[in-house]
Predict the structure.
Amino acid sequence: MSIRVRLLLSFGSVLAVAVILILMTSYLLSVAITGDMRSISSFYKIHYSLHPLTDEEETIFLDLKYLAKQDSGRMTDEVVLADYDGQLKMVQAGLFVRKDDKLIYASPSIGEPKMLSALPGYDAANLSIRSTLNVGSRFFSYAKFDFPYPDGSLGSLYVMKERSPFAELVRTLLPILVVVLLAVMLLTGVLLYRYITRTLIRPLEVLKRSADQIKQGDLQFELKPQSRDEIGQLSQSFEEMRRRLNESIQLQLQYEENRKSLISNISHDLKTPITTIKGYVEGIRDGLADSPDKLDKYVGTIIGKVNDMGRLVDELLLYSKLDLKREPYSFDRVDLIAFARDAAEESAWELADKGIEVDRDLSGSGPLIVLADRSKLKRALGNLIQNSVKFMNGDEKRIRIRAGAEGSQALLAVEDNGPGIPSASLPFIFERFYRGDASRNSGMGGSGLGLAIAKQIAEGHHGSIEVASVPGEGTRITIRLPLVDKGSVDSTAIELQTTGKRNGANG
Ligand SMILES: Nc1ncnc2c1ncn2[C@@H]1O[C@H](COP(=O)(O)OP(=O)(O)O)[C@@H](O)[C@H]1O
Ligand SMILES: [Mg+2]
């Protein structure tokens, strides 16, 4: 439910309650002004018929009744009657005495010409002594006693009280009305307040607290929207903002961390050969290379280290260009089968050059077209082959280069029967500067960038790279590229086997 609807409902209910109260009040007011009681008239008539007099008035009435019974002759005595009337006046009541059809005494307050004719007749049994009476527009309640005068005439005495029906009613109803009105309004107010607090104020407070938390740099919390209304949507957007902010800060921290480790890795990797070079150069300066053979060895080592450094710097440069997406790609339609065959033949040459016996076995044909930057893909494949050659340690060494298709993807894989990669290392081998067995590897001159570069290149081709390795059995690294044209090729297109003894092949 939207807040607008909620507000409308709230105000609607307040309005409805107010209207009902106003209607009730105005009805009562109209009754007050016109004096028309209609339905409630019977109620007050019954009430006053049962209790026409107050206790004090009743006492005076009983006194008068006693007097009329015992000494009815005195019921014509002006002075006695005026005395009782005086007492009744004090309690806002009046006295009316009738003898036969004649008026003996009437309080001035009751002095109503039509009263005599309106009063009930004589009743010797005094059956109905309390009742009410309308005279014109006036309304009275009374207690009556009928008695015989000594001369035999019929006497009636009335203690009467004029009732203002509305005044009485309002007097009793108004306090109740006011209390009920106040209670209803209070209750409505409290309910509305609680409702608005729960649905509006509290979520806003939570939002505010969250904003404060973010202001203080704390982003590690979660804001759960409590409702689906505007406030809930706001909370959701707020939570989204917090999440994104947190992510970007984490990313920033990660970049910062990466930058630091990159610098430290580069420094370390450059420092080591420089230290070696320095040692040899100082050796030459100090005359340690005192024979042409020794000098040759020293200079050879220095050149080797300088080459290592050159290679490292080249790889770093390439990696950073790829990483920053500054290295332009020139894509061609490349037949992956032919590409793999060429690469296999070429590396077979190189391996043979290094004294490795090469056994070529090419099979399969047909184009497997991908969009590729030849030189970069060659570089990636070269890095994979280099690793296989470098880490190979068994007696029978075999490298397979495979190309094939799988669904809409072309695969280019390098497989070896080397030592394999421990499963703990598998998640990291594509990270830059990651070198599996650091101590063993350092002697092989690896930069730890080979696979990172291969990964960048695979991704630069909108492809991916993956590894499957069983320690002790071998490793397969596969580059997957989107296939443009499948042609007539099956899964394993070509297979090149390079077998031979390991012969100081350096990655
Ligand atoms: N064919 C493989 N056989 C065994 N281990 C491998 C192979 N290829 C990669 N590795 C592991 O992956 C790590 C990362 O490889 P790479 O990025 O090329 O760095 P480098 O060759 O400089 O060590 C290597 O240090 C090695 O531990
Ligand atoms: Mg390598």
